[in-house]
Design brief:
With about 210 residues, the protein is mainly alpha-helical. It has eleven helices and no strands. Helix 5 (about 100-105) runs antiparallel to helix 7 (about 115-135), helix 7 (about 115-135) runs antiparallel to helix 8 and helix 10 (about 175-190) runs antiparallel to helix 11 (about 200-205). Mean pLDDT is about 85; it is low at about 1-35.
C-alpha cells in the first residue's frame, strides 16, 4: 500500500486537456472584445463587471483577488457561470491552494448543464480531493469521497481515462487493492493523452 501520490509536475495538464476536449478552453487572460458574453461567461450586468474585475486582477498577478471575484461573479450570475468557476478553479490549482480548489470544485455541478460538463465537474472534484489527501495526511478520509466522485465522472463519460488513474490511487489508499488494479489497467488500456503517467500506473498495477 502506498500513502503518497507522485503526480505529474504540471498539475493542470489533465484539466487543460479535458477543458479543450469538451470545448471549454479557458480565456481568463483575454479581455472581452464585445458586449456579448462568450459561452459560459456571466450574463448578469453586475456579474459581468465582477468577471472583468477578476480578469484584471489576474493580469496583474493578484491571483487570490481574481479567484474571489470569479467566485463572486458566479454567485451574482445565479451560480450558473461555468466560465467563472472554471477560471477560479484553475487559478486555485495553479497556486497550490487545494482546499480552496476543492471548495470551488463543489461549485461546478450547479453550473454544469450537459452530461459532459457534469462529468468534468465530478472529475475535477475527485482529483482535487486526491490532491488534498496527498498534501495533508489529516485529510485521508477524503479518499472515499474522491473514489465516489471519480466513479460518477466515469458513469457519465467513459472517455475520461485519467479518472481511472486517480480512482485507482484513491482505492489503493482505501486498501481496496483488486479494484485499484482494475482502475489502473483501465487507465492504461484507454489513455492516449497522458503517457507520463503510464509508467507510474504500470508500477502501481504491479505493486499496489
Amino acid at each position: 500500500m502506498f500513502r503518497t501520490c507522485r503526480l505529474v509536475s504540471k498539475k493542470l495538464i489533465v484539466i487543460a486537456a479535458f477543458l479543450v476536449a469538451f470545448g471549454l478552453a479557458l480565456h481568463a487572460s483575454d479581455a472581452p472584445k464585445s458586449a456579448a458574453p462568450r459561452p459560459g461567461e456571466p450574463t448578469d450586468p453586475k456579474a459581468k463587471k465582477t468577471f472583468a474585475s477578476a480578469i484584471d486582477w489576474q493580469n496583474h498577478g493578484r491571483m487570490n483577488a481574481a479567484i474571489d471575484d470569479f467566485r463572486k461573479a458566479n454567485k451574482q450570475d445565479g451560480g450558473k457561470c461555468y466560465q467563472c468557476v472554471s477560471n477560479a478553479y484553475r487559478l486555485a490549482f495553479e497556486i497550490g491552494d487545494f482546499k480552496i480548489a476543492t471548495e470551488i470544485a463543489r461549485e461546478f455541478l450547479p453550473a454544469a448543464q450537459t452530461d459532459a460538463e457534469k462529468a468534468l465537474a465530478h472529475f475535477l472534484l475527485g482529483r482535487c480531493l486526491v490532491e488534498q489527501c496527498t498534501h495533508d495526511k489529516k485529510k485521508n478520509d477524503l479518499f472515499a469521497e474522491s473514489a465516489q466522485e471519480l466513479k460518477a465522472a466515469l458513469d457519465l463519460d467513459r472517455r475520461i481515462a485519467p479518472a481511472h488513474y486517480y480512482r485507482g490511487f484513491a482505492l489503493a489508499n482505501l486498501q481496496q487493492d483488486d479494484p485499484a488494479r482494475q482502475e489502473f489497467k483501465a487507465f492504461l488500456d484507454q489513455d492516449r493523452w497522458m503517457p507520463d503517467l503510464h509508467s507510474r500506473a504500470e508500477h502501481y498495477l504491479e505493486r499496489v
